[in-house]
Amino acid sequence: MKRSLLLTMALLLLGTMAFANGQAADDGKIVVGFAQIKEDSPWRTTETNSVQQEAERLGIELKLSVTDQAGQIAALRDFIAQGVDGILLAPQTRSGWDEVLQEAKDANIPVVLLDRGLDAPEHLWAAQISSDFAFEGRLAGEWVADRLQGNGKVVELFGDPAADPAILRSEGFMEIISQYPGIEVVESKTGEWSQDKGRQVVEAWLAAGVEFDLVYAHNDGMALGAIDALKAAGKKPGQEVLIISVDAIKAAFEAIERGEMNATVECSPLLGPMGFATLMAAMDGQAVDQYIITPDSLYDESNYKDHPTGGF
Ligand code: GZL
Fold this sequence. Notes:
By secondary structure, this protein is an alpha/beta fold. The chain contains eleven helices and twelve strands.
């Protein structure tokens, strides 16, 4: 009697442990972990909502973690330990991912990158779904060259210097601007993607007597900060000093409407549907494209009212 009771208890314990580790697979419901960047921006919120809405539509259980990069690595390890079926990752910075992506690979859990790329061997992640950031920078550069008629002083509000979109938006922009000897980028500094920091950087430039004709910001949040700083200094943003940025959030279109901003390059945050379609295919062992690029276009005073949703 005693032996069979012990055997039964051991089997029950093993079953429970197996269930706890492999919960995602055992209860039949697909479980996906999403490691999102902690960032106070309408763009980021719109992206998270897009992912959550698509998970709900598909009946997928979404485990959402919102942190900085260190927290994202810990979240991925947590997802792996829980035995999720797939992972969505918006990598805050380009570097530092090889080890944890190898762990996901070893656990046979596909990882799809959303809205940013990273520096890790391509076999460690299934696909990157994002805009072509260098193209966005080139679009902005061509608009600036045209609007300044090849002559003027530009200041650049950089995003996070360690982040893929910031690095590539700057490279693309300079690829075009460098073709115009009359256009000079006189200052470039990170505004850390935020309106408040963007405002502080431009305030400091103005206080230092930096003269410029145009602000190129890597995202609308920092552009709105530049507008705040210019207005506080008694200048006319959108008129005396031109403003172009990236993202096409609603507040940017509202600033263009007020004549305080001139252009924004669309960068869609609506990546949920494509993110899950790609991840599900990868989970099913199907081959997926390594890079899936969402199309972008530029909106300025002449066409911003044509945007299908009025901004994100
Ligand atoms: C771009 C995304 C960027 C946005 C910024 O895909 O990673 O992150 O352009 C945000 O607004 O900081």
